[in-house]
Amino acid sequence: MPPNKKIYFASDLHLSIAPDVKSLRREKEFVQWLNTVKNDAAAIFLLGDMFDFWFEYRHVVPRGFIRLLGKLAELTDEGIPVHFFIGNHDQWLRDYLRCEMNIHLYREPAEFSINEKLFLVGHGNITGMEQIVERTINFVFGNRILRRLFAMLHPFWGFTAAIKWSEHARKRRGLYKPFIGPEYEPIYLYAQNKLAEKHVDFFVFGHRHLAMDMRLNENSRYINTGEWIKAQSYAVFDGNDVTLHSFKASFQRED
């Protein structure tokens, strides 16, 4: 990691299919954040659910997100690596970001050794799928046959149903589940289990929609980046330590 450089982690932007006024404003603010960090960014990690729903056909991608996609292409063209972890809302992302923007794609948590610190990074949806509903949803979205059947639907019907389902799920669950103790945090418990196998300095995940920095033992921590719907929280590695921040209080709105 070069001197005076940093690594940035963000997740759960949940951009909606255009047109959506709130999503567009959120997209502009996120792009503004990318503009502020690109000068000292050694790499940028996007930890999933950047899109509220995504489905790409062989020759067609969803409408919208043009500002974000253009900025990501600009970053990679300038030599800044972008790592994208596919979340539960954008599971049907295939190779568009990799082919068009040279973005590194991951479907499972991955390890990174940075400045002699070992990171385990991921979205977080597959770390504690105890509930039958969660397992069923992940099976449906991960099944190739069902994905091909969905592709046969006209986009009007397919996308309309998917958007309605996503909106209903968020209203039913709320923005996030309150923290009631580490014993009820699936990602925290997942990190504890991984530590029994090998040492990891930092576990960095999203999905939870609640920014957290929790100590696992004397040398390991679990950091959750939170979300960008309201809190606009993100994590930064300065070469030695990982800290949480919020862009909400610092950005200049561009209407």
Mean pLDDT: 87
SS-based structural class? alpha/beta
Q: Bin the helical content.
A: 25-40%
* Distance between the ends: 36 Å
What is the overall number of helices? Answer: 7
CATH topology: Purple Acid Phosphatase, chain A, domain 2
The CATH class is identified as Alpha Beta
- Please mark out the parts with pLDDT under 50 across 5 or more consecutive residues, or reply none: 251-255
* Strand order of the biggest β-sheet: 4-3-2-1-10-11
Assembly state here? single chain
Q: Which superfamily, in CATH terms, is the homologous superfamily?
A: Metallo-dependent phosphatases
How many strand units? 11
Dominant shape: globular
How many distinct domains? 1
Which percent range describes the beta-strand content? 15-25%
Structural write-up:
The protein has seven helices and eleven strands. With 255 residues, it is an alpha/beta fold. The protein has helices spanning 21-37, 66-77, 96-101, 132-142, 144-152, 155-173, 186-195; strands spanning 6-10, 41-46, 82-85, 104-106, 110-114, 117-122, 202-205, 212-215, 221-224, 233-237, 242-246. It has a six-stranded mixed beta sheet. The longest helix is centred in the middle third of the chain and has 19 residues, at 155-173. The N and C termini lie far apart (36 Å). It has one domain: Purple Acid Phosphatase, chain A, domain 2 (4-Layer Sandwich).
